[in-house]
Amino acid sequence: MKRFIETSGRHRKIEGWPLVFTILVTLSILVGGIVEFLPLVLVKSNIPRIETVKPWTPLELAGRDIYIREGCNNCHSQMVRPFRQEIERYGEYVKPGETIYERPFLWGSKRTGPDLYRVGGKYPNLWHVRHFDDPRSTSPKSIMPRYTWFQKQDLNFDGIGRKMQTLQTLGVPYSDEEIASAADNAKRQAAAIAQDVVASGGPANLEGKEIVAIVAYLQRLGTDIKGSSASTAAAGISDVPSGTN
Ligand code: HEC
After folding, report:
1. Ligand 1 center to residue 224 CA distance, Å?
2. Are residues 165 and 65 in the same domain?
3. For residue 147, which of 58, 201, 70 has the smallest C-alpha distance?
4. If you measure from the C-alpha of residue 134 to the centroid of ligand 1, how many angstroms do you get, rounded to a whole number?
5. Is the pLDDT of residue 3 over 70?
6. Gap from CA of 165 to ligand 1 centroid (Å)
7. Are residues 27 and 147 in the same domain?
C-alpha cells in the first residue's frame, strides 16, 4: 500500500510538469507506433500476392480514369465484404491481394448503386453501352444518371502511356515496351470491343470513343482470380461470419 502511494506520488509529480509529461507521452506513443508500423513496411510477405492478378491493360487503365473522373465511386463501392448476404448478392468477397495495383483505391463507402467489384463478365458489352446511354433502358427504375457523352467523346489514346509511366514509378510492373506500345495495344482492345458491340446489334464506330474504355474496365473488374486458388468455391460461404450491410 505504501509503495503504491509512493509511485502514484511520483506520477503526480511528473503530471505536474506539462512539458516533461508531454515529451514522455510522445516518446511512448512513438515507440509503440514504430513497433507496430515497421513490420508492415519491412516484411515483404505482408503483402499477399495472387499469381493471376495482373495490372490493368492500357485501355482498361484509361477506363478506370474515366470512372474516377465521373465520380462513379460516389454511388458505387468496389468492396464486396466477407458477409453471407454480400457474397450471395455480388459474388466472391474482395481479397487484399486483388487490389495491390490500385492507385488510388476505389473501395468506396457509398452504395447508392450496387457494388461493382464483381461486375466483370456479368453483362455483355452491349448491355453496358445501352446502360450508360440510358440506365432506364436496361434497369427500368434506375436512378443512375445518363452518360451519353461516353459514345461521343474521343478517347485520348496517346495519353495512356504517360499514365502507365506514372504507375510504373509507383511500383506497378509495366515494362518499358508495354508503355511504348500502350496506344496501339489500347486501339486493338478497343477495336475488339467495338466489333463485338456491332455484332450484337449495337451502334457502330465506337472504337475511338470513351465508351469502349469504361466498358473494358468494367468487364475486367474482379475477374483476375477466376479459377485461381484464391477463389474459394461456393462452399466457402458457410465459413464467413454474417454481419450487417
Ligand atoms: C447517382 C448514383 C449513381 C452514379 C453517379 C452512378 N451510378 Fe451506376 N448505378 C446506380 C444505381 C442506382 C444502379 C442500379 C440500377 C441500374 O442498373 O441502373 C447502378 C448500376 C450500375 C451498373 C450495373 C451493376 C449491376 O451489377 O447490375 C454499372 C455497371 C454501373 N452502375 C456503373 C456506373 C459507372 C461506371 C458510373 C460512372 C460513370 C456510375 N455507375 C455512376 C447509381 C449510380
Report:
1. 22
2. yes
3. 70
4. 11
5. no
6. 30
7. no
